[in-house]
């Protein structure tokens, strides 16, 4: 009797089909909706490291332009989404504050790409995030999280303001909405597939 074949670290079997696990980062500046997006779309109970913000955080985290935020991610968020019989996405949400940047290197290791969430009212806050993603050599798509009451922005103006390459995907989404979040991730996955062909 022979031993059972071992599975590679990228594959596992469910219902007899081999699936490929794909690591995707969900990144963005502080209070842009990363935890919300992963929570809206994950097919498993998402791991969330949200903690109540304290007065000590007020001196460190810039709450300008942010209303009603009472919690913040202190480590990471994690969720899972099966997008086909063959592909499952593992979603890793990074904390948005500058003091957590040292964690990004470890989280970026092995990632295929990143969905960069952007608040159109705080575009300048996205520059350091995009710089980091480019530093780690990750392909990415931009998802403009449309907040209640915010005016829709012209895509061309957004591209220019963020200094994006012509082929970088830009989509508008509502991180609270499962279908909208799924559409943003689908845009990223299609882009990544096109880049690997």
Automatic annotation (TrEMBL):
InterPro entries (alphabetical): Gliding_Motility_GTPase (IPR052705), Gpn (IPR004130), P-loop_NTPase (IPR027417)
Keywords noted in UniProt = GTP-binding, Hydrolase, Nucleotide-binding
Q: Which Pfam families does this one have?
A: ATP_bind_1
- The superkingdom of the source organism is Bacteria
Q: Does the keyword NAD apply?
A: no
Q: What is this protein called?
A: ATP/GTP-binding protein
Coiled-coil stretches, from where to where?
none
The entry sums up its family as follows:
Belongs to the GPN-loop GTPase family.
Organism name: Streptomyces thinghirensis
């Amino acid at each position: 009797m022979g031993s059972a074949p071992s599975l590679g670290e990228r594959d596992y079997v469910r219902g007899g089909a081999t699936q490929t696990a794909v690591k995707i980062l969900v990144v963005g500046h502080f209070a842009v909706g990363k935890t919300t997006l992963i929570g809206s779309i994950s097919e498993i109970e998402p791991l969330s490291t949200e903690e109540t913000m304290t007065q000590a955080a007020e001196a460190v985290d810039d709450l300008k332009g942010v209303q009603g935020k009472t919690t913040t991610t202190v480590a990471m968020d994690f969720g899972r989404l099966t997008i086909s019989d063959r592909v499952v996405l593992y979603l890793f949400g990074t904390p948005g504050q500058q003091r957590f940047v040292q964690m990004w290197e470890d989280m970026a290791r092995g990632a295929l790409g990143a969905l960069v969430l952007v608040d159109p009212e705080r575009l300048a806050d996205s520059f350091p995030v995009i710089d980091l993603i480019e530093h780690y050599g990750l392909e990415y798509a931009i998802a403009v999280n449309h907040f209640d009451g915010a005016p829709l922005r012209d895509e061309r103006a957004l591209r220019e303001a963020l200094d994006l390459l012509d082929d970088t995907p830009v989509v508008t989404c509502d991180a609270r909405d499962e279908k909208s979040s799924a559409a943003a991730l689908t845009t990223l996955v299609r882009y990544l597939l096109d880049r690997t062909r």
